[in-house]
Amino acid sequence: MNRRTMLKALAALPISSAVAARCDDEHRESSPRLQILLDGAFAVVLEHGKRDSVLAFSPRDKEQPHQFYFNDPSHEQAAEKDYTFELMPEGIREHERARVEISPGFGDFHASTKRWRLTESFVSIRLPMPRSISFAGHRERVVFNSGKSGWMPTNHILEYDVTDPGRIRMECKEIGKICPPSPDSPEGLKRFFFEVGPRHIDHQHAVIFFNDMLKASFPDLVEAFSLKDVLDNRDEQQYPPRAGMKPAVLTTQNAAQYRQISYTLDCKIGGILVDVPGPPG
């Protein structure tokens, strides 16, 4: 079972299985849904404003160019382009930032700042505010420059309620204006997959890339969130993985399945989830 298969399988589980029972769970499970899966080195910015929105982006790494896959794991997108996607709001139920369910597993990498910048991005994705943000699989054990340790999810799953599946539209002029959902979208669930990362696993590169992203885009978060190291947490006896939304992430699967799993990209690093008051300055 490779990592992509695991991620897709876990993402398909209803988010309602990971939170306390609620009166609308049955309605949620039967309603059409949309998932945006971001795997690898993405910053996910939750913008507050007249219309709350999300900007997910992965900066361009000029030292060690990253690879980018969209929906198709067998087709690498051209590395010399910058890709700009936008999920249009039509056909999606509108949500306010205050109502978004965020997995507690992001706790070590969920921040807020008033000052941020957007530098050259290899991939950027403009999205409406989702109903929930979760993750699948294990988290990486990290050490901050401050000496504290924490856990970093290596993917983000944004989930939406859909009012009209026929109106769902993802646009990207670099790929073909309107992009169809992944062919691996089961009945009642549309998916878009975005994967960014280096060709080879390198802990040092992962740390440098994450810290450079903080310096360039979130200068006020550098002191608190800069990394010193990414540890090998495959030894669950030494570093037992902790779940965010536990039933959807760990308890529905055998933990041994997360050991030594392969993937097209394995950056060993995720990103940061940041609340901001408005557009970049």
Description of the structure:
This protein has 5 helices and 17 strands. By secondary structure, the protein is of the alpha/beta class. It has one domain. Strands 7-17-2-3-8-5-13-14 form an 8-stranded mixed sheet, with no helix packed on it. Strands 4-15-1-12-9-6 form a 6-stranded mixed sheet, with no helix packed on it. A 3-stranded antiparallel sheet has the order 11-10-16, with helices on one face. Strand 2 (43-47) and strand 3 (53-59) form a beta hairpin. The protein is globular. The chain starts with a helix and ends in a 5-residue tail after the last strand.
Topology readout:
Elements: H1 3-11, H2 25-30, E1 33-40, E2 43-47, E3 53-59, E4 67-70, E5 83-87, E6 101-102, E7 110-112, E8 121-128, E9 132-134, E10 139-144, E11 149-153, E12 155-161, E13 170-172, E14 177-179, E15 189-197, H3 203-217, H4 222-225, E16 227-230, H5 246-251, E17 273-276
Parallel strand pairs: 1-15, 2-17, 5-8, 6-9, 7-17
Antiparallel strand pairs: 1-12, 2-3, 3-8, 4-15, 5-13, 9-12, 10-11, 10-16, 13-14
